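User: Teach me something about this protein's shape.
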Amino acid sequence: MSTHVPDRTAAKTLLDAEGLGRTLSRIAHEIIERNDDLSKLALVGIHTRGVPLAERLAGLIEERSGEEIALGAVDITFHRDDTVSRAQQPVVGATTLDFDLAGMTCVLVDDVLYTGRTIRAAIETLFERGRPARVQLAVLVDRGHRELPIRPDYVGKNLPTARSERIQVELAEIDGADRILLVGTPEEAR
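Assistant: First, the predicted structure itself:
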């Protein structure tokens, strides 16, 4: 007789495509409400999944307000403080900021907020390119476990996790589907 041991590394769907769409719609609405002058607003996606999220949010904001939103992307690879300890060589994306940062409210957009180190690196990258009037932060998921004093202005979902768990955001533009998964680590299976 064989006994089946459940696979604890299996992913649990926390949010499907429809829920993700509603969440982005709400974030876009909140951004419009909190920023009086949308002509001075820029959405800046953090590579990799923050970029398509910023593009989607810009589209939603433009659709609702009629105002075209400046859009950019930042790669934080050279500002990471864990590059020495990482086993693989980092993949470098392009930093694209085709607008003057002076006087702008830049909303950094990322998929998951965890320790805060990615956001710190993104702010450094942004300030290397100019001096925005304000920097705000929009994240799809805040999973807790902050190591730096970083707090998002716009949060899609607060999903408290154990350190042994991982939030995996999948986007149609990159992964072929929209969903948010909770993934256990192999250590949990022991």
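Now, about its shape. Residues 17-34 form the longest helix (18 residues). Helices lie at 17-34, 50-65, 117-129, 172-175, 186-189. If you'd like, I can walk through any region in more detail.
User: That's plenty for now, thanks!
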